[in-house]
Amino acid sequence: MPDFPVLSLRLMDCSADYEKARIVLFGAPFDGTVSFRPGSRFGPQAMRQDAIGLEGYSPYQDREIDTSVILDIGDLDLPMGDKIQALRMIRETVATLVTDGKFPLMLGGEHLVTLGVIEALVKKHPDLCIVHLDAHTDLRQDYLGVELSHATVMRRIWDILGDGRIFQLGIRSGTTEEFVFAREGHTTLYPFTLGHLDEIKTQINGRPVFLTIDLDVLDPSVFSGTGTPEPGGVDFLTTMRFLVDAATLNLVGADLVELAPHYDPSGVSTAVALKLLRELIIAYQQSNHE
User: Fold this and answer.
1) Residue 264 lies in a domain
2) In-domain check, residue 207
3) Tens digit of each residue's pLDDT (9 = 90 or more) over 208-226
4) pTM for the whole thing?
5) Which of 180, 236, 258, 278 is the most buried (most CB within 10 A)?
6) CATH number of the domain bearing residue 157
């Protein structure tokens, strides 16, 4: 068993023995490449703190989350200014989890942290696909001359996976070049909407899937606590229903990133993130009969 820290506060009291845990939660508190408003490194701890008020029962699905098979191992101790080292630590953590048969569920942090997860998962699942919810394409070749950035993360993932394996939904912001790149067939782009999941399922055809949720896919009226808010997003119920349906994919991991809680002192954004996390876990457990 890996040597994880002892936490005084675990998200939703998820404290299963490592050997029995099917889902392992961890935080990736890194926001070293954020291009507008920093603060997503505080997201995982805000979610743990506010989860004290979250019920385990979902009235949407009429089911209770089974925390007996979930372990929250806490936040990785990522170096503030070293993205290479941060990505290495994430990659090594996920590699350990998947080798041990766990479902990795990461809380960001900025979106670049997803790259470390994919670098680990693709070694076990070479036919991996990505379902990507976001306001932004994240397909820039570089941002201000830097190739490793939260604005380039899906382009770096495309470098690994290639064409036909990245499905992007809810997108409503990006450069002309990014949209052209996607529409040339390098990714499958569904701007402005979280529809078309049945079509995506057909294209994926049972291949393993990583679900990455940049929470700024939500409209700022619902989710203002993020570094780069974009008007014109989707609402909570639409997002929640998508995640419940997406749990029927062959999921091998997931993340929720870009909660920057200090930009929403009301706490609503953190509550939204927590409810989406709960619904996703319950739906995944139901789909996998856990």
Assistant:
1) yes
2) yes
3) 999 999 999 999 999 999 9
4) 0.96
5) 258
6) 3.40.800.10
